[in-house]
Write a structure and sequence with these properties.
Layout (H helix, E strand, L loop, with lengths): L6 H19 L5 H14 L4 E11 L2 E12 L3 E6 L6 H13 L4 E6 L6 E6 L20 E3 L16
Parallel strand pairs: 3-4
Antiparallel strand pairs: 1-2, 2-3, 4-5, 5-6
Helix pairs in contact: 1-2
């Protein structure tokens, strides 16, 4: 029987897998290449995942289309990949929308396109952060956290000029 991993353990392993991919390939490839390589590393790390998991999007109880998250890992964490020189607020908003649409507590936005690998944790406001593994942000803040080693733990507010 497989051990039940905490969200922190899952995100730690995902980040480690992404770092291995980025350290091996560097930046400059298309997103799909990083996605394929990350799938190899997630499998090697023993994580259960689904690639390109489709999810219906509803507007006032009417199905208006579908979206696909790059990865759903351990049925607990949404992972959205980018291969961009710079992440912008729209990418954080997209990742947050996935977390909310899939009804998960947390997601990761990982950018392979920058010289240094970029991680951002995205939190679903529906889930309480106080007293859980995702502590560190107040409930009234936008729920993003930069996971770059240089900026570890600093909240990122997409509505600010930072």
């Amino acid at each position: 029987m497989k051990e039940e991993l905490t969200i922190d353990q899952i995100t730690y392993r995902i980040n480690g897998c992404a770092m291995k991919v980025h350290n091996t390939l560097g930046n400059g490839f298309q997103e799909v290449i990083y996605q394929r390589c990350l799938a190899i590393e997630l499998e090697r790390a023993g994580l259960d995942f689904v690639r390109e998991k489709e999810h219906a999007i509803f507007y006032e109880n009417i199905n208006v289309g579908t979206r696909r998250a790059d990865f759903v890992v351990e049925d607990k964490v949404i992972v959205e990949l980018k291969a961009l020189i710079n992440l912008e607020d729209v990418h954080l908003a997209q990742a947050k929308n996935y977390v909310v649409a899939y009804d998960f507590a947390i997601g990761l936005l990982i950018n392979f396109g920058a010289v240094s690998l970029q991680f951002k944790k995205v939190f679903n406001k529906k889930y309480k952060t106080a007293g859980s593994e995702t502590t560190g942000l107040r409930d009234n803040q936008d729920h993003y956290r930069d996971q770059n080693p240089e900026n570890s733990g600093n909240p990122v507010n997409p509505d600010s000029d930072n």
